[in-house]
């Protein structure tokens, strides 16, 4: 499982919520959940309130990845999703937790989406994370 925490670089209050959200994840999510921090609206540099260094610092303190993104300008969106998906796959592939299932096949596919949600966007790609489990009974 993976969680992306997103704050708005033009809104200090949204950044202040990150610490609380990280505590909630620590308290309520599985311990092996992948987390990623995204500072969104990096296309609005002239309205920036939260310095990039603050995002990098909190990510470093919590041992999580950090990207600045722009959903509007499609900056680092695909990279962030692919990175999170790859981190999840790596964790599943190396985890003893899933060995009891018998066989696990994982794959990551990047494909062209025929009908993107935002028709104004240049991006037509989507990320698909597939986890197949074959449970076998041991005799």
From TrEMBL:
GO terms for cellular component: membrane. It is a lipid-anchor. Residues 115-139 are annotated as: Disordered. InterPro entries: P-loop_NTPase, Small_GTPase, Small_GTPase_Rab. Its EC number is 3.6.5.2. The keyword GTP-binding applies. It is found in: Membrane. It catalyses: GTP + H2O = GDP + phosphate + H(+). The keyword Transmembrane does not apply. It comes from the Eukaryota. Belongs to the small GTPase superfamily. Rab family. This is small monomeric GTPase. It comes from Anabarilius grahami.
């Amino acid at each position: 499982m993976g969680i992306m925490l997103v704050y708005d670089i033009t809104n200090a209050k949204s950044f202040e919520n990150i610490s609380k959200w990280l505590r909630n994840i620590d308290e309520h999510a599985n311990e092996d959940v992948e987390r990623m921090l995204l500072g969104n609206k990096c296309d609005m540099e002239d309205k920036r309130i939260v310095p990039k260094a603050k995002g990098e610092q909190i990510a470093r303190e919590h041992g999580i990845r950090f990207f600045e993104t722009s959903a509007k300008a499609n900056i680092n969106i695909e990279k962030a999703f692919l990175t999170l998906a790859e981190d999840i796959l790596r964790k599943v592939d190396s985890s003893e937790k899933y060995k009891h299932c018998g066989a696990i096949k994982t794959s990551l596919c990047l494909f062209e989406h025929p009908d993107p949600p935002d028709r104004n966007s240049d991006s037509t790609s989507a990320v698909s994370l597939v986890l197949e489990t074959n449970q076998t009974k041991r005799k």
